[in-house]
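Example 258.
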Amino acid sequence: MISLKNPEQIRKMREAGAILYEVLQELRGQIKPGVTTAALDVFAEQLIRKHHAIPSFLHYQGYPATICASVDDAVVHGIPSHKQVLQEGQIISIDCGVQLDGWQADSAFTMGVGEISPEAAKLIEVTEQCFFDGVKQAVAGNRLGDIGHAVQQVAESHGYGVIRDLTGHGIGRNLHEDPAVFNFGEPGHGMRLRKGMTIAVEPMIAAGTWRVTQDKDGWCFRTADHSLCAHYEHTIAINEDGLPELLTYPGFTWKEDA
Ligand code: MF3
Ligand code: CO
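Predicted structure in complex with MF3:
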């Protein structure tokens, strides 16, 4: 079931999104060689609680941390660890969720640790492009398949694999709501997009195969061929004007994405 949100409800999600944006921006500044992913997790939890908000992922279906920290071939849901010390040249996806007054925001980015290879930098850049091309399709009257198709086009034009086992999702009072937002699809197919829909669009793009395996911890997904994977996510709302707003990217305007 799809729950549409009114402007007041979207306003609350925007407030959660603004806190999450600050948390992720601050985390970017913490990512460097020698830092553990557990330290990043503590940093994120403290900053969220300072804003009197709640870390959405902590205890979600038993998940043990505030962030997901997924390094190199890890796709998503990497559990932060004291044993995982970041090394120059790695890429890391940080995914985090914030709950404020019962409303959720969910966002992720991928960045390099110190200097990274041109190939890794390209993967990160193209994954962001996948997101923005996908979200441009998130206008009232279009269909879910228009988003997925746009994401897939960008990724596959670079020879990359679109992860298929994991998707974006509706979001609101719950972190995960209907519909599933696939990162591949057919234009003009799937559910029609409407004003008041709030969804998390999150392409996960691999340099090699889209096939994944799951670690024994029951959480972390990796590419089956151990190729690098990047992830980029924002929570968006389709507003009264029928156009998408990035709730987890305050101040974003399309001009920046020339
Ligand atoms: N952003 C992640 C997703 O949409 C949420 C991770 S849930 C947790 O899949 F269980 F890892 F917390
Ligand atoms: Co998500």
